[in-house]
């Protein structure tokens, strides 16, 4: 367990939290004392296993499509009922990755699916949750370091388009919700060794990507989770409207 228990009494809602960075973040915030809502979209087993690891008194798993408005409303309602009528930390982490298609190959269905989960979902989750967030609460949106990478490949077009929207959303929401005392930022991870990220990549490619970083390694979900823990914690009262690049210096 972490030495600090700085989030005792706080309720955190994290979408896409059953695996990868979301799961590491849920576990870390729970270690800091928060009660955590673990949202997932389809696979119940890892979500329930994470609840068991944290403890059922301090975590709950809620299945919902984080890109569907009715599911978002239900997710917020169930969080409020379980968490005592408030949300202190909101992390819209669920997202669709790169489709592998460039401009010419992108279909309307591709566009609607990725934008629906990556932009519409966070937008309306914030809309529904913000009225129940007290002064001092934190919203942390999730971008990517790819938005600032000059060597970006054409097949990442749709993905980085959605993350660019997230970064603009962060800036405007920080001005708007900041008047209510809500702290709004975004985190932009670099290459992170999640099972999803590593899937299908050769050892040679992984070593090449690790070499882009001055530490000569990929990030870990725990690296990102610890950064999140500070950004949404009580010590962060003055970093507002920023996109924090958590990539170990890969891209500055």
UniProtKB/TrEMBL annotation:
Signal peptide: none
Keyword NADP listed: yes
Domain of life per record: Eukaryota
Gene Ontology MF: a single term: oxidoreductase activity, acting on CH-OH group of donors
InterPro entries assigned to the protein according to its UniProt record, in alphabetical order: NAD(P)-bd_dom_sf, Sc_DH/Rdtase_CS, SDR_fam
Keyword Acyltransferase: no
Pfam families per UniProt: adh_short_C2
UniProt family annotation: Belongs to the short-chain dehydrogenases/reductases (SDR) family.
The protein's name in its UniProt record: NAD(P)-binding protein
Provenance organism: Paraphaeosphaeria sporulosa
